[in-house]
């Protein structure tokens, strides 16, 4: 499965963004999806994951309540709704897919999308 993240941009603190992860190739609905981010000089950080059918979701504590992961298997797309953005959310955001929900490693990765939050 091939993935492409999009929807990033430059926003102000307190704004919202919705990132999209468009999939092509093998059956998207067979894969769990995770969202990650990497800020300059920092390690990649897990944010959220969603099971193959959207029935289960899991969030990293720092984004719980502000970020929402979802998916539309008809559109072969996953989303990350980000609300009340903060300058520390500035990073490159990536989506990834794996046959296993909450996998410790993801087999497929898309190119990232830059999110910049100004104060």
What is the approximate shape?
A: globular
Number of helices, counting only DSSP H or I runs of 4 residues or more = 0
Q: Proportion of β residues?
A: over 45%
**Helix and strand pattern:** EEEEEEEEEEE
What class, by secondary structure content?
mainly beta
Largest sheet: number of strands, sense, barrel closure: 7 strands, mixed
Radius of gyration: 13 Å
Question: What's the rounded overall pLDDT mean?
Answer: 95
Q: What fraction, in percent, of the residue positions are helical? A: under 10%
Span of the ends, CA to CA: 37 Å
Which residue ranges are poorly predicted, with pLDDT under 50 across at least 5 consecutive positions? Answer: none
How many β-strand runs? 11
Please render the helix and strand layout as text.
Blueprint: E1 2-6, E2 9-12, E3 17-24, E4 32-38, E5 45-50, E6 57-59, E7 67-72, E8 77-82, E9 91-98, E10 108-109, E11 113-118
Parallel strand pairs: 2-11
Antiparallel strand pairs: 1-3, 3-8, 4-5, 4-9, 5-6, 7-8, 9-10, 9-11
Question: Can you characterise this structure?
Answer:
- This protein has about 120 residues and is mainly beta.
- It is built from no helices and eleven strands.
- It has strands at about 1-5, 10, 15-25, 30-40, 45-50, 55-60, 65-70, 75-80, 90-100, 110, 115-119.
- Strand 7 and strand 8 (about 75-80) form a beta hairpin.
- The N and C termini lie far apart (about 35 Å).
């Amino acid at each position: 499965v091939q993935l492409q993240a999009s929807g990033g941009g430059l926003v102000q603190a307190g704004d919202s963004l919705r990132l999209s992860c468009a999939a092509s190739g093998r059956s998207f609905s067979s894969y769990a999806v995770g969202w990650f981010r990497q800020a300059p000089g920092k390690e990649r950080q897990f944010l959220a994951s969603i099971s193959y059918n959207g029935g289960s979701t899991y969030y990293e504590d720092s984004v719980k309540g502000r970020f929402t992961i979802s998916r539309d298997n008809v559109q072969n797309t996953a989303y990350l709704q980000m609300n009340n953005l903060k300058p520390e959310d500035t990073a490159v955001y990536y989506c990834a897919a794996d046959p296993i929900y909450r996998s410790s490693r993801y087999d497929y990765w898309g190119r990232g999308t830059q999110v910049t939050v100004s104060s």
